[in-house]
Amino acid sequence: MLVAAAVCPCPPLLVPEVAGGAAHEMDAARAACADALGGVAAARPDRLLVLGPAEQSARGTHPQGARGSFRGYGVDLEVGLGKGDAPGARPLPPSLTVGAWLLTRAEWTAAPVEGLGVGEATTRDRCVAAGRQLADSADRVALLVMGDGSNCRTVKAPGYFDERATAFDADAARALGAADASGLLALDEELAYELNASGRACWQVLAGAAAGEGSGPGSGPGSGLEGRLLYDEAPYGVGYLVAGWS
């Protein structure tokens, strides 16, 4: 059963060493992520799954101890997914590497950790099925859901400006802030692809995990979960959202 979730963005700029002199610009986002993870730890889960968008070679499960690096961003920094080592494990994709960094920063010890790389084009139905499977994997399951909103909020954004981006991100923010699984599942797959919203599939996996106990908006879809929207900004023209479900 899903007992808690933290939803966080996954830009490498969350990591101060990567951001360099611009690190302070993400201070509020880092604080919100720490708040969301604190709520997850307080739920005392038996298992934590870190979900994040991934390219083909990094999709699927990643064991506790798998490692990721920020060397591709010019920083000699490596992090592991939870405690221990996993010899022979594939390198974590960037999204899960940022998630592992957040957990390291939070000194996470509340539960064993595993990762799941999710294809950005994964269909809504497959996301729901994956979420339900995750929710059924332990008595008390928690998720750390990594992913960004649209990257088309301004003319200087990576995807340039698209007038549809603000409304898409607002719909996602409303659903995440209300723990509204139905609202997340209503996000349009094709529009998310056109707006380069990397978090859509992972958010819909979260919705599937929550909807396993029922369906509907408000304080959780029949599961007793309540949502808090902790951060909703687009500092680089990319929608970054942080939410906590507990």
Report on this structure.
The protein has 246 residues and is α/β, with parallel strands linked by helices. The protein has a single domain (2-245), classed as 3-Layer(aba) Sandwich (Protocatechuate 4,5-dioxygenase, Chain B), CATH 3.40.830. Helices cover 33% and strands 20% of the residues. The protein has 8 helices and 9 strands. The strands form 2 sheets. It has a 7-stranded mixed beta sheet with strand order 3-6-2-7-1-9-8, with helices on both faces. A hairpin with a 6-residue loop joins strand 8 and strand 9 (240-245). Helix 4 crosses helix 8 (200-211). Mean pLDDT is 94; it is low at 213-222.
Large-scale geometry: globular
- Just give the CATH class: Alpha Beta
What is the fold-level CATH name, i.e. the topology?
A: Protocatechuate 4,5-dioxygenase, Chain B
Count of alpha and pi helical runs: 8
Distance between the termini: 12 Å
Major β-sheet strand ordering? 3-6-2-7-1-9-8
Mean pLDDT: 94
- CATH homologous superfamily (4th level) name: LigB-like
**What's the domain count?**
1
Which stretches are poorly predicted, pLDDT < 50 over at least 5 residues? 213-222
> Fraction of residues in helices?
25-40%
Give the C-alpha Rg: 16 Å
Structural class: alpha/beta
